[in-house]
């Protein structure tokens, strides 16, 4: 899997090392484990998916994680992205809106000794108590850039967020440039994410 990611253009050795270290099959439902190292998203229950490894790699690379970075993740899902961030030395704060998914993810994350704090909530409003963050990664796609997440970034911090329609989203890398919440945006390629449901996302009825 990691060889494929390298071939597809992922060059950050720290991202590749973390993805080599974290066993993705632990985050995949047992009946699908023979596909755990395919470069594909897989269902994890509740209509949600564990993201495709290439997507995880692109997003993690874009965050420019360093040791002790404080990273907020919106959409814990299986816990795989959080485990990769923790393996890179980040302090991970992760929010999931579906309680049963977080329960399973918590157990797996503890079993791999991840360093994380997690809660069930609407992540589009961020996690003020632990802000500001060096980086924020949103692993579900919404209609716009959630303003609270920009507010909760450090100046110079990066928010990686898929923005678009229900059908497809463009990955945006938002860099906060000033204390008054000014930011610059770099557009990456298009992806297909599950919907971001919440106050600064799609309405509940779209879930
Ligand atoms: N990072 C995950 C990807 C899971 S898919 C992984 O590595 O497996 C995205 C997740 O975002 C889903 O579990 C979905 O329930 C969750 N989600 C959607 N809207 C959310 C919101 N507003 N706050 C928190 N989680 C949300």
Question: How are the secondary structure elements laid out?
Answer:
Blueprint: H1 2-7, H2 13-21, E1 42-45, E2 48-50, H3 53-63, E3 70-74, H4 80-87, E4 91-96, H5 99-111, E5 116-120, E6 133-138, H6 147-151, E7 153-164, E8 169-176, E9 183-191
Parallel strand pairs: 3-4, 3-6, 4-5, 6-7
Antiparallel strand pairs: 1-2, 7-8, 8-9
Largest sheet strand order: 5-4-3-6-7-8-9
Mean pLDDT over the full residue set = 97
In N-to-C order, the SSE pattern is HHEEHEHEHEEHEEE
Sheet with the most strands, sense and barrel status: 7 strands, mixed
**CATH architecture assignment:** 3-Layer(aba) Sandwich
- From the helix content, strand content and strand pairing, which structural class follows? alpha/beta
Low-confidence stretches: none
How much helix, percentage-wise, in residues? 25-40%
User: What is the strand tally?
Assistant: 9
Output the radius of gyration.
15 Å
Task: Describe what this molecule looks like in 3D.
The chain is of the alpha/beta class. The chain has a single domain (2-195), classed as Vaccinia Virus protein VP39 (Rossmann fold). Helices cover 25% and strands 28% of the residues. The chain is globular, with a radius of gyration of 15 Å. The two termini are 31 Å apart. Bound molecules: S-adenosyl-L-homocysteine (SAH). S-adenosyl-L-homocysteine binds at residues 48-51, 74-75, 77-78, 80-81, 95-98, 101, 122-124, 139-140, 194, 196-198, 201. The site of S-adenosyl-L-homocysteine has 25 residues, from strand 2, helix 4 and strand 4.
């Amino acid at each position: 899997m990691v060889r494929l990611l390298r071939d597809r253009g992922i060059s950050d050795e720290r991202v590749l090392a973390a993805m080599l270290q974290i066993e993705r099959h632990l985050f995949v439902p047992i009946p699908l484990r023979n596909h755990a190292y395919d470069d594909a998203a897989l269902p994890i229950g509740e209509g949600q998916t564990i993201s495709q490894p290439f997507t995880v790699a692109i997003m993690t690379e874009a965050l420019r994680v360093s040791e002790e970075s404080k990273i907020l993740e919106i959409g814990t899902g299986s816990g795989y992205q959080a485990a990769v961030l923790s393996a890179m030395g980040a302090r991970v704060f992760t929010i999931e809106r579906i309680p049963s998914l977080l329960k399973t993810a918590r157990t797996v994350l503890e079993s791999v000794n991840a360093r994380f704090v997690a809660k069930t909530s609407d992540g589009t409003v961020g996690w003020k108590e632990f802000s500001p963050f060096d980086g924020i990664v949103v692993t579900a796609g919404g209609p716009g850039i959630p303003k609270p997440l920009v507010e909760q970034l450090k100046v110079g911090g990066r928010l990686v967020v898929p923005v678009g329609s229900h059908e497809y989203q463009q990955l945006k890398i938002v860099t906060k440039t000033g204390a008054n919440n000014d930011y610059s945006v770099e557009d990456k390629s298009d992806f297909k994410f599950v919907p971001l449901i919440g106050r600064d996302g799609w309405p509940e009825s779209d879930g």
